[in-house]
Amino acid sequence: MFRLIFILFLIISNVKFGLAQHFEVHYRESIVRDTTKNFNNAKIAVNDWIFISDGIESYYYSGVKNYSKFIEKQDSVMQDAIFYADKTKAVNQVSIKSLVSYDSVGNVLYINKRKDSIWNKQYSNGYILTQERIPEISWKISEDSKTILNYKAFKATCHFRGRDYEAWFTTDIPIIAYPWKFTGLPGLVLLLTDNDNQVKIEATSINIPAKNPFPEYSFTGKKISLQQYFTFMTDYMRLRFEKMQKKLDDQDIPDIIKNRPDFKKPKTSISGGNSESMRFIEKHF
Known about the structure:
By secondary structure, this protein is of the alpha+beta class.
């Protein structure tokens, strides 16, 4: 049934919009980096991304104006101390913005269907660039449905690079759009979550035609393999957390914060912040 829907979907899509028609979907990513925790007890990295495509070339990018906001649910006092330090500048500045750095382009995932390739360009103290073939994800589509953003969405599940995922996609709009590398579904992915409650990506708005142009892109940067990428990013995130924690430990926290009855001195190391537990969407390749 869904194979027939997929074929009809592609025909309608090409006739109605044409291959040159740009469209865009805005997604919000919420990710727990520490795989020993979940959304209920961990810091959450929240980023806004844009998927923009003409049906052949697609970009999934963050841009210079977006940055991670780490939300500490367990220790609001420490969060207050961070923002207090940033506002008063009376102590060493440790702002949430300092965790992630971009240049004028930002992080970009470029997908080219004709070349069957994905290029991931990420800024981490300089650009790094990886290339791979578009993954063939084995989706299992069910008849389960629900309404998301006023669209009828169908449920699909898969296992991809270390995690089990549940996606909800719609065929009400004749475009194919998805977050990150989650290709292969016959429609627009509106919501994607993992079974460990550590990843949630949800569509927030849809623009047809797109309001933004394709981002500027060049294949420059340090070219590394996927294996090197996972090793590099794991160590990179661990070191950044440790550096931030050290700044918090070394600075003089204002008395107005220390005198609060619920104040707790920050730990010298982040729980779970080791090279094995710190992960992004993909645990391995």
